[in-house]
Amino acid sequence: MIARSWLFAPGDSEKKMVRAAAGPADVAILDLEDAVAEEAKPAARTMVADFLAARPEADRARLWVRINPLDGPHALADLAVVIPARPGGVMLPKANGRADAERLDHYLSALEVSAGIDRATTKVIVLVTETAAAMFTTGSYVGAPRVVAMTWGAEDLADAVGAAGNRGPDGSYGFTYELARSLCLLGAAAAGVAPVDTIHGDFRDLDGLRARAEKVRRDGFQGMLAIHPAQVDVINTAFTPTTAELAAAQEIVDLFAANAGAGTIGHRGVMLDRPHLARARAVLAAGGRG
């Protein structure tokens, strides 16, 4: 799954859901968890379901829902109300490993059948580092049903370990949170799904967002979470290959095609091998040429 920007919108605000759905985000996540107060959750899930049902069916593929955690009192009610409205996918927060993804798959399968929806239509992105236990299971999602992307979170992890904060004096994440980020990336690579970086909390700091998005793309992430519509264009641009990158990638692909069977090829003073070809093909895919 190729999606650069994943924009949260509170599930109890129709205005913000409309804005997210109408904007350029690749995926709009209608949030029933952190953005909604405890007492407002029943009304919010109905609002989200009504919002989805009112959208053209073709639009719903990019409208996902973040449900509440599976081990809490709201997740099943969230799913029972919103799945008949056919969201494109579900974000699973505070997952502790593959067993949670499998449990969610069972719930979704039953609800899809009940609603007359083809089984496995609803995809899943998993938040994989929000609890201490989850840090030890990021590599467990290989072959997990429905999972197409993995992302991580730093704020809930800080709460889980009793930290006073998750950043150093210079604003960079501490070791534990950079570890969480790396484990998410490695877990997603092992599972063959899209790694998605976490939010940039200061939505006014677009220069900082741009620098971070460009860095994590170089590291291997394929997209990023957003908390404000102003962040979306910056993220989309950062995760879209430039004309020069596409041209260079196409040159490598063409070179290997012209030298079928070659394991290594000298090019512009550099020895290219099959990993270079794989990366070039990934760039072309991200640019819509794969």
UniProtKB/TrEMBL annotation:
Mg(2+) binds at residues 130, 156. Keywords: Lyase, Magnesium, Metal-binding. Substrate binds at residues 66, 130. GO terms for biological process: oxaloacetate metabolic process. Its cofactor is Mg(2+). PANTHER family: HPCH_HPAI ALDOLASE_CITRATE LYASE DOMAIN-CONTAINING PROTEIN, LYASE BETA SUBUNIT, PUTATIVE (AFU_ORTHOLOGUE AFUA_4G13030)-RELATED. Residues 4-229 form the HpcH/HpaI aldolase/citrate lyase domain. One of its GO terms (molecular function) is lyase activity. It comes from the Bacteria. This is Citrate lyase subunit beta/citryl-CoA lyase.
